[in-house]
Amino acid sequence: MIAIIQTYGWMLLAALGKTILLTLLSLFFAMILGMIFALMNVGKNRLLNLLGTVYVDAIRGVPLMVLAFFIYFGIPSGMKGMGIQNFRLSALQAGTMALALNCGAYMAEIIRAGIESVDKGQMEASRSLGLTYGKSMRLVVLPQAIRTMVPSIINQFIITLKDTSILSVIAFPELMNMGKIISGNTGMVLQTWTIVGVMYMAVIITLSKIAKRIERRVNRGR
Questions:
Q1: Quick one: which of 145, 139, 102, 123 has its CA closest to 44?
Q2: How much is the mean pLDDT over the chain?
Q3: By CB distance 3.0 to 4.6 Å, which of 101, 116, 127, 192 could disulfide with 183?
Q4: In angstroms, rounded to a whole number, what is the distance separating the alpha carbons of residues 39 and 24?
Q5: Is 0.85 surpassed by the pTM of this model?
Q6: For the chain, what is the radius of gyration of the CA atoms?
Q7: CATH code at 92?
Q8: Phi, psi angle pair for 105, to nearest 5°
């Protein structure tokens, strides 16, 4: 095990860095998608409600691995069929898109539930004071909803971090993929996956501790 750390330690740390980078990029775009579709779902426009529901149900009904294959292999193939040659997505681009779409569907539900947890009287009161729907949502409802959403959002961050391991199927050089390479090169399967598991565990436990601290602060601020 020590030999693996001495020889491949820097490669494992680099792979962990790429895993965290992929997670952060995915969550950034997932938050945007989640907010858009959550607002579509809580509004009164039936067409927007339908579009939001279709997105959430469709994405949640497709395994992440299938979504990653569709984006990484399917989209370039489709573009080629349309006469657009030499179009391809990098593993980082495809992985970010797949994770963002997948996570965005769950974020939409988290944000929707957070908004609906705020008493409807808050919206009615702000509208009676002359605020538009958009300003009422932005200035009155969302700040209160965020308190409810924070624990679930951080939990989704942890889930997304673990989901990055699935993207080893499109050869993204994250931690799981690096573990496969090292175990194949050295034959030290048990030792390699022990190290990889400990690295994942260290990051996830740290995030869990941060989540609990943030949750306590949010609860004290109520």
A1: 123
A2: 88
A3: 192
A4: 23
A5: yes
A6: 21
A7: 1.10.3720.10
A8: -65, -40
**Cα distance between residue 169 and residue 129, in whole Å:** 54
Span 69-94, pLDDT tens digits: 999 999 998 888 888 888 888 989 99
DSSP string covering 78-92, please? HHHHTT-TT----HH
* Contact status, residue 191 vs residue 20, Cβ threshold 8 Å: no
Distance CA 100, CA 105 (A): 9
Query: In this structure, are residues 39 and 137 in contact, taking their beta carbons and an 8 Å threshold?
Result: yes
User: Is-contact 175 192, C-beta < 8 A?
Assistant: no
Identify the burial level of 49 via C-beta atoms within 10 angstroms of its C-beta, where 0-12 means exposed, 13-18 middle and 19 or more buried: middle
Q: Which two tokens stand for residue 22?
A: 């992929």
* Domain range enclosing 27: 2-220
Lookup: tokens for 144: 């209160």
Measured CA to CA, the distance from residue 70 to residue 121 in angstroms comes to: 44
Element (H, E) at 53: helix 46-60
Average pLDDT of span 204-209: 86
> What DSSP designation does 130 have?
T
For 15-24, the pLDDT digits (tens) are 999 999 999 9
Q: In the chain, how many domains are there?
A: 1
